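Example 3.2
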Amino acid sequence: MLGYGNRKRLTMPRMESLPESSKPFGDLVKTDRVKTDREIAHADLVEQSSELVKVQGDRQLERLDHHLERQNINESNESPEIDLRDHFTWSNLAIVTSIPLVGGLIALGLIYLSNPSAISWLASANTPAFYSNSLWNIPKSIPQIQSELGRIQLKLGESYNLPTGEILYTVLETETQNIREIRLYQPVRDRNEEKILLLSTTTIAGIDEYFVRAPLLKYATYPIPERLQVGRNRLPLKKFSLLTDPPSQFKGIWFSTTGNVDGIAYGQIYYIPIDKRSQLIELDPWTSSTGELPKWRNVLSHDTNAVQLVINQTQEFEPLYLVFQPEENSTTEIGKVQLRQINLNEAKNQPKLYQDALVMASVGLWSPALEKFTQVVDEWRSQGKNLPPFLQEQYDLIALHAKITSDRVQNSNSNLGEKALINIIDGKWKEALAIANDPSYKGDKIAEMLAKYHPHIWPRVTTMMTFTDAIEIKLWGGLVVLQRNGLRRAEHWLRSQKVDTKDSNQLLQRLDLAPITLQPQQLLGTVSYLGKDAGSDWFLPPPKLESGQAWYEVNINLIKDGDKWVSAPFKELSDRSSIVLWRILGLATNPNLGIVLYDGYGKSQAATLTAQSLWVSDDGRLRILASGETILAPLLPKSIIPPLVTSGGTFDPPKGNPVEWQSLSPKTIERLIRAMYGELQRGGQVSMSIEDFSILVQQQWTLSSVNLDGSGQSEYLLLLDRSKVDLGDRHYPLAIAFASDGSLIFSDMNGSRVWMDVLPSSTEGQILTLRNGRYEIWNFR
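Structure, written as tokens:
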């Protein structure tokens, strides 16, 4: 058995004895030689089978096992004394260990074909971020791609050829032309045809609308729409724009997807490094209220060879530039970049001058901020030190904006209001106040400026008040309160800031020029006697009384606003300066007030007063101080109803047209008579029958046709003086109004609401009535 011992064999189980042979010993030697040859052949077959298993895998191994089994069975039949299944060779070991190795290699190959970037040690370090993971990603022609996209309502848009040979494409929605994807393709030649292979694709989701509009919302003077909330709505991107003159230290392409809404430009910045394998890196979104694309420019004085990405968010007179420094992002893969914004975040352990400078710069006071920061720089240099890079960037950012605001002050061609604003933005408060106090013009431009730009001024006022008690800053704060909340609150705010009234009153009165929608044409009210002392509550100091004169107080109940009458209170007139009120009420041009006194028979007597001052309560109730003859005082209480005071001309109500009773239908006449008879019975005992009353009315009483309820159809009005109906000591004439069908719609027989007249106005259906001692508007509808 030496032949077995010379071969590499697994250790066989130890046998206690050889199986007995049925043949003589001489044949045994021959038989052993034959077995040895067969075993040699068997071993060769095993080695060949082992190599076959390495190529074909588990299925071939199974076939081999069956073959070996048959060989063993045959040899067992020939040599039953030795069973090869009891022997395990090195070849058997190779077969067993190759099985998981082959399976692993097959799985690894499938993964690599499916997604090369999934195996980092096999893939390039610059594998595209969005490499296609489809096994069916094969090269395609442009028409094929367009056809596939067309089936889902998309199409290829703009393209750009990269220096490395790849092509950048936008994918657009067919109907809206919005960008849906950015794709990176590699040109290939497939069967002598030019095609392109998809390398990566990036989905475009649009830009948050709140982010886009946020810079303008900071200074908005209008209510912010409810829909403008973070994440509520996304605005689409439309175009592909290259960002030219990029930094030289980054070899690649910088571009932006862009859109525009209401003149605001916005977009998303991307970077493609140019190396062996291009990849698309998505960076920051941006928005520009000036409608400009981001630009590469040098704004840092300490590094004149580098450029930064600058986004212009300037709003008219308010300069604002966002500056981004491109740099490698060490926290991510090699070759990645980021845009780091240069901000005004406070560095630790710095002097107070530095802290103050950042506070001022944060509200747009660039020049005062630069002045304080420069003191810090000078102090560092006096110690032989240089500013740390972070502080140097902040200094350069502030200097950029300060130069813009200072240049505008020097080269302004704006109106006086805008000049005052430009000086405030540059921190020149005294110069701005001198413009506002200039008596050579009315101040309307200052008022217009305050109405539009007061959100720009207020944060500057409150910030500077933490550093100084300068009165000019407080006065500008008072003007902002005047614009926002009215004169009374402005006066109160200035008093709380310990500003003397004599220093502020003239300025506030002069600049209270915000528009008033109320357009007074005529005033109506009641009057009462004051005597020789007017009191001290009036807005304008009253003059000295002349001989024979006394003071009277007029309470205004109604104002004719354009063509429509409105009742007190007049909220819009509160918190306004007396100068403005005196002018808009027409008292500056015509201070005369007319008085109508009524006797018990409906007869009237006229008198006049002269307006001298006024007062308005917080809720808008208007009183006028007037002077008049002393002899008028005893006449006032003799009027059967409160005397009616008018301004702006005589009170001239419209007259109705007489109606002939014969023109009315019998049914309408019957309704009119019965309604009149019923109302008279309510006032007292009627001494005649309804039949006799009907004859009397049609012979002696006159109806008027007047449009009373504003419906466009004339109603009937009956006015009765005391000679026709005497109901005692009360106002006459008595008024009874009827609808066009004869039904009753108004009567002042009970005296709770006294009919005065139809108000003179192009707005029909407004009736002047007296109720509880006040004159009121009353409408039938």
